């Protein structure tokens, strides 16, 4: 049991959720925060990073991770580019800090396992940042499933579609930094939700197809922009995941996520981003989208901090993050070979 104020370090502002986490931490009143974003020095011009970003969000700031760790944080939140997650998470673990890591946990299975192992060896907690776990619709769906209201789940269809992520955080379309394209960016959220509702069943077979038809005119994009992933689980449940940057650039919103669960006695449809007011702004000749749903970053941060105080494993765990990376790796192998891949047989690096 941990009492008193906690010191939480923010490692990088590369991921746009960093601002939400800062806001959620500051709203608690029982933590002190310190941020550092050394990658800002090499970020593309026009991206607001580093001290400027920290000032905009009200976060105290230091220029280097060395200074951050001299502060001796109790926990760190890793918001760096996907390819840097392993190095940053391992640094946090070595410093004795509990780790909350952005999704995907890593760009390879080997790196994801290394993060899990490093935190276990250091005796620190590891949580993966899957905010969709905390949407009220998903929590209600899990309760309905536990109560047996739709019987045994036999199928699922998930969509996670968004705009091409260029502009504010262009590293999302850099295969080296992101680990891939739309398949990596968008599959993991649905994979984690399925993991939560289908456990203890596990994936057995993965088949995926990807292409670059969407945004083919953009020479800066060299990875997949559209994809479809099919996952067969150990009990025969078949899930399909649409992971595409298919939202038009002119759309009023970045995109959205949906999940339909089919059971032997009913079905459940989840659309967290349906809580909105939308229409057309005649004065500016464009659409508008005003969401009024819950800010999922708040309960996510609360789970992390509360678990540290209680001395228990936060959820989603590092193992959940690892399983999502394993599904992505299998899907990437399937798309490359144009054949189904047995889960766990995809390359680890």
From TrEMBL:
<dbReference type="Pfam" id="PF22725">
    <property type="entry name" value="GFO_IDH_MocA_C3"/>
</dbReference>
<dbReference type="GO" id="GO:0000166">
    <property type="term" value="F:nucleotide binding"/>
</dbReference>
<dbReference type="InterPro" id="IPR051450">
    <property type="entry name" value="Gfo/Idh/MocA_Oxidoreductases"/>
</dbReference>
<dbReference type="Pfam" id="PF01408">
    <property type="entry name" value="GFO_IDH_MocA"/>
</dbReference>
<protein>
    <submittedName>
        <fullName>Predicted dehydrogenase</fullName>
    </submittedName>
</protein>
<dbReference type="InterPro" id="IPR036291">
    <property type="entry name" value="NAD(P)-bd_dom_sf"/>
</dbReference>
<dbReference type="InterPro" id="IPR000683">
    <property type="entry name" value="Gfo/Idh/MocA-like_OxRdtase_N"/>
</dbReference>
<keyword id="KW-0520">NAD</keyword>
<dbReference type="InterPro" id="IPR055170">
    <property type="entry name" value="GFO_IDH_MocA-like_dom"/>
</dbReference>
<feature type="domain" description="GFO/IDH/MocA-like oxidoreductase">
    <location>
        <begin position="138"/>
        <end position="268"/>
    </location>
</feature>
<feature type="domain" description="Gfo/Idh/MocA-like oxidoreductase N-terminal">
    <location>
        <begin position="49"/>
        <end position="129"/>
    </location>
</feature>
């Amino acid at each position: 049991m941990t009492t008193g104020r906690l010191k939480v370090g923010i490692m990088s502002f590369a991921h746009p959720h960093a601002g939400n986490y800062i806001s959620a931490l500051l709203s608690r009143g029982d933590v002190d925060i310190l941020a550092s974003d050394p990658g800002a020095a090499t970020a593309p011009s026009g991206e607001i990073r580093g001290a400027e970003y920290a000032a905009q969000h009200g976060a105290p700031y230091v220029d280097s991770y060395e200074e951050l760790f001299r502060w001796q944080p109790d926990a760190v939140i890793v918001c760096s580019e996907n390819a840097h997650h392993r190095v940053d998470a391992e640094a946090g673990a070595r410093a004795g800090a509990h780790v909350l890591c952005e999704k995907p946990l890593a760009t390879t299975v080997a790196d994801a396992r290394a993060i899990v192992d490093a935190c276990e060896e250091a005796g620190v907690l590891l949580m993966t940042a899957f905010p969709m776990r905390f949407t009220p619709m998903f929590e209600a769906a899990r309760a309905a499933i536990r109560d047996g209201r739709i019987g045994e789940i036999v199928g699922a269809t998930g969509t996670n579609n968004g705009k091409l992520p260029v502009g504010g955080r262009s590293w999302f379309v850099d295969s080296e930094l992101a680990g891939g394209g739309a398949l990596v960016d968008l599959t993991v959220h649905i994979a984690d939700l399925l993991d939560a509702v289908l456990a203890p069943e596990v994936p057995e077979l993965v088949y995926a197809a990807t292409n670059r038809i969407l945004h083919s005119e953009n020479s800066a994009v060299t990875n997949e922009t559209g994809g479809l992933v099919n996952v067969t689980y150990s009990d025969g449940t078949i899930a399909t995941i649409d992971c595409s940057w298919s939202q038009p650039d002119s759309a009023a919103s970045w995109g959205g996520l949906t999940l339909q669960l089919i059971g032997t006695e009913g079905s459940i449809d989840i659309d967290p981003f349906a809580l909105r007011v939308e229409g057309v702004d005649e004065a500016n000749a464009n659409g508008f989208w005003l969401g009024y749903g819950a800010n999922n970053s708040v309960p996510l941060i609360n789970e992390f901090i509360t678990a540290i105080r209680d001395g228990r494993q936060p959820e989603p765990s590092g193992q959940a993050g690892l399983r999502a990376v394993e599904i992505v790796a299998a899907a990437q192998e399937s798309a490359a070979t144009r054949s189904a891949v047995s889960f766990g047989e995809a390359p680890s690096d």
